[in-house]
């Protein structure tokens, strides 16, 4: 059964932080994996999960930088992983599986946004490859380690407003546009969670997609400063604009989706502001909500098949 995109309500909101949603939650004995867990929202996600008692595995494209960022955070382990390299995904996963440990929470937080045209692996477009296909392969390869009742959270974005999956040309062989490339990958994140939840239902593995909000982090590194002003992301004195969140607030929805019992019966939901998101009624990404192409079960199944074919991973 497909979850309705309707607010619960959860009692939390846009201003809640990751610590707010974890207040009174004891994650002692739980193991979480957070891709990108050493920068921006992922760093705050890792810290909050660790404060709640979880052991947190942080796969990192730059393990030395990750180690620095997480110095002093107890219960965290860093491992090498480049999501744009399927061999690296395989090696990371094999190393983890060899430990015999299980995972209770997986948060797919790593991502790139609005990069100049970049090709990885066999010529794949980098947003689709890193943000979606790398995570698809990672979760598939880690499938044997997912504990019964494990939750997988795909960090999507209201950036998905700009594009459905480009079925005829997902790798932008023609007409590359950095925002459409990001948008497609974020639609893919939402569809991934939708179909994973359906496939995982037998084993109790649940999956959710989240839009974290708008937050100034290193994610915007490819956008020239003038464009930040032109897009209204910052005030004239360089402060985050109204409606932007802090990184701790930005980490809250993923942490909530990974832990809230209120979501037990709502697998596959697309969430924002620590609640299930409503269908988008405008094109205002700051308001958010979810567009129909990101909750289409047929598209989710089709994308799953395409991703299996491309990565050679089909574990569910
Ligand atoms: N910030 C926002 O306003 C916003 C809004 C909506 C959605 N999101 C989503 O939230 C997630 C986190 O974003 P953020 O703002 O926290 O960005 P961020 O600070 O730039 O963090 C992104 C992380 O992804 C990692 N990463 C990038 N390419 C990778 C690769 N090939 N292999 C492994 N790791 C890789 C980065 O590692 P390196 O530092 O080593 O490159 C970094 O740790 C992203 O999925 C983004 O799309 C963010």
Please summarize what this structure is.
With 316 residues, the chain is an alpha/beta fold. Helices cover 34% and strands 15% of the residues. It has one domain (18-311): Rossmann fold (3-Layer(aba) Sandwich), CATH 3.40.50.720.
- Ligands bound here? NADP nicotinamide-adenine-dinucleotide phosphate
CATH homologous superfamily title: NAD(P)-binding Rossmann-like Domain
Q: Tell me how many strands there are.
A: 10
What level of helicity do the residues show? 25-40%
Q: Which fold name corresponds to the CATH topology?
A: Rossmann fold
**What is the number of helices?**
10
Determine and state the CATH class: Alpha Beta
Secondary-structure element string:
HEHEHEHEEEHEHEHHHEEH
Main sheet properties: 8 strands, mixed
What is the second-level CATH architecture? 3-Layer(aba) Sandwich
Q: Indicate the structural class.
A: alpha/beta
What is the 3D form? globular
Work out the radius of gyration. Answer: 18 Å
Overall tally of structural domains: 1
Q: List the strand order in the largest sheet.
A: 3-2-1-4-7-8-9-10
| Nearest-integer average pLDDT | 97
Unreliable spans are: none
The share of residues in extended strands comes to 5-15%
Compute the separation of the termini in Å: 18 Å
Notes on the protein architecture:
- The chain has 316 residues and is of the alpha/beta class.
- The protein has a single domain, classed as NAD(P)-binding Rossmann-like Domain (Rossmann fold).
- The protein is built from ten helices and ten strands.
- An eight-stranded mixed beta sheet has the order 3-2-1-4-7-8-9-10, sandwiched between helices.
- Helix 3 links the parallel strand 2 and strand 3.
- Helix 4 runs parallel beside helix 5 and helix 5 runs parallel beside helix 6.
- The chain is globular.
- The two termini are 18 Å apart.
- The relative contact order is 0.18.
- The model has no long low-confidence stretch (mean pLDDT 97).
